[in-house]
Amino acid sequence: MKIIFEKSSSGRKAVELPELDVPMKENSIPESMLRNELDLPEVSEVDVVRHYTALSRKNFGVDNGFYPLGSCTMKYNPKINEDMAVLNGFTQAHPLAPDLNPGCLQLMYELEKDLCEITGMARITLQPAAGSHGELTGVMIIKKYFEVKGEKRTKILIPDSAHGTNPASVTLCSMEAVEIKSNNQGSIDLEDLKKNIDKDVAGLMLTNPNTLGLVDKNILEIAKILHDNGSLFYCDGANLNAVVGISKIADMGFDIVHLNLHKTFSTPHGCGGPGSGPVGVVEKLVDFLPIPLIEKENNEYSLNYNLKNSIGQMRAFFGNFGVMIKAYTYIKALGAEGLRQVAENAVLNANYLMSKLKKHYKLPYDTICKHEFVLSDEGLPNNIITTDIAKRLLDYGFHAPTIYFPLIVHGAIMIEPTETESKQTLDRFADVMIKIKQEAEQNPDRVKNAPSNTPVKRLDAVTAARNPILKWEGKC
User: Fold this and answer.
1) What are phi and psi of 278, to 5 degrees?
2) What is the pLDDT of residues 326-346, one digit of tens each?
3) How many C-beta neighbours within 10 Å does residue 457 have?
4) pLDDT, tens only, 334-392
5) What are residue 41's phi and psi, to 5 degrees?
6) Domains along the chain?
7) How far, in Å, CA of 349 to CA of 314, rounded?
8) Residue 240's closest CA among 371, 360, 405, 348?
9) Which of 263, 289, 306, 451 has the fewest beta carbons under 10 Å from its own?
């Protein structure tokens, strides 16, 4: 017998629901998928534990090494955030329970308010499951906004330094992605922007700071060009770690922003998740946000589905709640001053590391950076390339940086040290990078054949791409 609770004049009362008699089909699993015999090895518990422990030691993670992936903010995240996310009151809550859990609603409401304060946006939806999903949400809002206005705008402008998900999100919305060139300072080329702006342009997607780790100095002028054309300005917030607590996205002239809670606001990420990509908008776009929004009245929380122009619901229930708990804990623990210190330390670490390495590697954009910087493999001796550098770093116990991105830099090596690494770690990484450069000069084969001491040696990437061994074709 199932029991639910309904509201009544005297409070909440229990109501019994009849059981649904749904017979299970016998042998509903296809015969080809049924196991005919069980052949498991006879091993002791201690052998099983040792086997999986040995496997875990072959993995690389932030807890056991430096992870300088640019544009990914692979930083250490305090374990208390994980502890909060598994509290029984949160893990046992069910989104279909009557009135939901007031504590869950309060947490989401307060998290939204904190993110609005950080970004300067009017309202934020917590639904999107990742940054890319946030992008899709943002572009859908842009598209719906012009549809309601009776304007058919089909183009979204995207810089040539953008993340690849930007044009992908535009294409998914059946709109046209138009590339805008960068100038020799790594910022948007204003002349190219002006050349491409017209009444068919719905908006511009811009990462700021961009993927070169540089703030666009013409950001306010770019915003004016767009707004004078009636277009919207979208911020890819993947690099918010560089400015959180220092500057607000809305003050830069943006109308929409997506955030990565799993980058800037805690939650270890990788292997495709877990993620959370809230989207914030200025006042005129609030009515287009996904439903529901959480409202507070007379100290009670409720779900608001009454948004006339909403693009609908983007995800089951209200988003990735576990990631929200971690972000909430992170923000409350640090406070305003702590968040600002995060950005300041991230920028300091990046500039310190850049100043040490630019003497040994080509730095295409030699200027003060924000949270990350991009080196190039141009000029390396003996035909050593970026891939060789990345593989050799593994031998020294460092995860490789992001390589070959952004595409506007030849042989790009994008490095983001984050705020959580010590000066000792940065010095050790810089020393190894310098040593690899020396090896490239004196013993290039050692670099070209790296890695040599990892569980898996260098793979033949060309053969793997041209002749992949596909499991579903029975080749394994």
Assistant:
1) -55, 150
2) 999 999 999 999 999 999 999
3) 11
4) 999 999 999 999 999 999 999 999 999 999 999 999 999 999 999 999 999 999 999 99
5) -70, 145
6) 82-334 (3.40.640.10), 344-464 (3.90.1150.10)
7) 37
8) 371
9) 306
